[in-house]
Each structure stands twice: as structure tokens, then as C-alpha cells.
Design a protein that fits this description.
Aminopeptidase, 2 domains, six-stranded mixed β-sheet, two-stranded parallel ribbon, 8 helices, about 15% strand, binds zinc ion
Length: about 325
């Protein structure tokens, strides 16, 4: 709430009290101060449950049991809510030569609408804990890194089934984002080893002429007191969309999460969506510029990335902002 708003609110209360003494009906002025919410309410408990459900499958790195089982569940879940679900399967070669059995999910809402918005996240989890001090070669649970973005998007899918935005929406869950080459690797350094699912989708879109007005990628959106900044890949390709989304978030009261620090560009799925499809796409990703050296969530790529780090308030801030953005589009 801005200072002028607080002042207005106080004056309104004083005015209200004076009116009461004169026994006149109290003016209903507080209504004018409520944030402009035009979208349905995002249910953070539901989103939290969707994250927990994924984590129950265990690590979801490609070619693992958890990956196969979670894929089956995601397909069932998305089909409950979307008008149409496309499962785009591919065998993708990883930096270590392994062929990863991958599936990107494309869930279409209002498929006949010409104007479309793309919402995306990666659903796979990292096969290593290379930022941890122990069990570095074991896969992580990825509650925040993987689970949180998908959890928010599944709750949005559930809301889109009940309420109907005027525009079309495509929720795309990318596979094989987090199988990138670790810094300490026995293999020769290679380029573009992360984001294999989005690279594949960018080169093989589910519809030949697919286009969206803009895209929003979620990655690590469940950490307590997360800070989302303007990272430079998003600025370079889609500054207008950053302004729009951050503006909405601040307008509805989530300015403490969505701040305007600038950060150097990240390689995440949005880079390839921008480069390969021309859809201006931003990344909402935790990066705490206040930490000594600037950092992702402390549990990033460690075994501590479990349900203990997931905070409903952060899921709510991100999910409600996205719903507002979707429902204000005409
Ligand atoms: Zn990751």
C-alpha cells in the first residue's frame, strides 16, 4: 500500500467516525481501496498439494521410475482441466551420451481463440545434487526446482476449467530442463546442455503455426520470501511483459516478491522459447540480490530441496499474479 493510500484510508476512517456521530449512514469508502482483483482466487493449498504430490513420486529425472509415474499422473491431471492435452514425446541426447525418454505436455484451454498466452515450467528434476556437500551423484527431490512451477500451473489449470478467460491459454510443461552438464564433469564442456525439452519444442512446435502473444516461465517459485528480479534475458526479449507482470503483482500487493533489481541474463527455458519461436517470454525465478553474492534459493540443486522449503504464500503471490494477467487480457 502506498503512503497516499494509507493517508486516504485514515481520512476515510475519520470521516466515517464523524458521520457516525451525526447518526448518518456511514459511507462505504473502503471498497475503493481494495486491490483491483478481476480474476478468480488462486488456491494456495491446492497448489501446495500439487507440489507435494509430485514430490511423493521421488526424484523425477528422465529415465527414472519417479519420472515415468509422475508423467502418467500429470497426463491424467491435465486432462481433467484442459480442453485438449498433447503429449510430445522425444528421445533427447544428454551431455553424457544417454538418450533421455522425454515428454513435453501441452495443455490447451480455449483452443479456438486466436489470441493466446503461454504459461510454462519444467517438470523434470535434476539427476545430481552437484551443489550439495554429500551424495552429489544422487538425484534430488526438486520440490522447488521443478515441483513448484508445475504446482502453480496445475492450480491455474484447475481455475481455468471453472472460470473462462477471454483469451486462449496454453500450459506447457517442459521435460529435460535440468539434465545440464555439471561444472565438475568428466565430459568435455558442451553448449546448450540444459533445457533439452524446450529446445525440442521450440524446433518442433505442437502446431506448425503456433503463436502466443507472450509467454511466462516459472522456475523455483515456492521458496519462503522469494525475491523475483528482472534478469537480463527477459529484459532483452520481453521487457514490456516484465513491466506488465511486475506491475500487476505490485498492484495487488505482492511487491515484496516482485522487485525491480536487475540481474545478468540466465539460461533457462525462456531463452530457447524466445530464440526459437519469437514469442516474447519472461522468467519468474527466485534470485536473492540481497544475499552476499546473489543467489538462487539456498536449497538449489541440493538434497534440501524438499517440501520443507515450499511456502504457500509464495505460491499464492505467483499464482494470483498469473491469474490476474490472464483474466485482464481481452
Ligand atoms: Zn535446476
Amino acid at each position: 500500500m502506498s503512503k497516499s493510500r494509507v493517508l486516504f484510508f485514515v481520512l476515510a476512517l475519520v470521516f466515517s467516525a464523524c458521520e457516525k456521530e451525526k447518526k448518518a449512514p456511514p459511507p462505504v469508502v473502503q471498497q475503493a481501496e481494495a486491490p483491483k482483483l478481476s480474476a478468480p482466487a488462486f488456491n494456495a493449498d491446492s497448489a501446495y498439494w500439487f507440489v507435494a504430490k509430485q514430490v511423493q513420486f521421488g526424484p523425477r529425472n528422465p529415465n527414472s521410475k519417479g519420472h515415468t509415474e509422475c508423467a502418467r499422473w500429470l497426463a491424467t491431471e491435465l486432462k481433467k482441466y484442459a480442453d485438449n492435452v498433447i503429449e510430445q514425446t522425444a528421445a533427447l541426447r544428454a551431455f553424457d551420451g544417454k538418450m533421455l525418454n522425454s515428454v513435453n505436455f501441452i495443455a490447451e484451454f480455449n483452443p479456438q481463440a486466436a489470441k493466446r498466452i503461454l504459461l510454462c515450467a519444467h517438470w523434470d528434476t535434476r539427476p545430481f545434487a552437484d551443489q550439495d556437500t554429500s551424495r552429489k551423484n544422487e538425484p534430488i527431490l526438486g520440490a522447488n526446482d521443478g515441483g513448484s512451477g508445475v504446482g502453480v500451473l496445475l492450480e491455474i489449470a484447475r481455475q481455468l476449467k471453472i472460470h473462462h478467460p477471454q483469451v486462449g491459454v496454453d500450459i506447457v510443461l517442459f521435460d529435460a530442463e535440468d539434465y545440464g552438464q555439471p561444472e565438475e564433469s568428466a565430459f568435455a564442456p558442451q553448449e546448450d546442455t540444459y533445457c533439452l525439452g524446450s529446445q525440442y519444442w521450440g524446433k518442433n512446435k505442437h502446431k506448425k503455426d503456433y503463436h502466443a502473444e507472450f509467454g511466462i516461465l516459472l522456475d523455483m517459485v515456492g521458496g519462503k520470501d522469494a525475491r523475483f528480479v528482472w534478469e537480463n534475458t527477459s529484459v532483452n526479449f520481453a521487457e514490456r511483459i516484465l513491466s506488465k507482470v511486475w506491475g500487476v503483482a505490485n498492484e495487488i500487493g505482492y511487491g515484496s516478491y516482485f522487485n525491480y533489481f536487475r540481474k545478468s541474463g540466465l539460461t533457462d527455458d525462456h531463452l530457447y522459447v524466445n530464440q526459437l519461436t519469437g514469442i516474447p517470454t519472461i522468467d519468474i525465478i527466485e534470485f536473492n540480490m540481497g544475499a552476499p553474492s546473489g543467489t538462487f534459493h539456498p536449497a538449489w540443486h541440493t538434497h534440501a530441496d524438499n517440501m520443507d522449503v515450499i511456502d504457500r504464500n509464495t505460491l499464492k503471490a505467483v499464482g494470483q499474479t498469473l491469474l490476474e494477467v490472464v483474466f485482464m487480457e481481452k
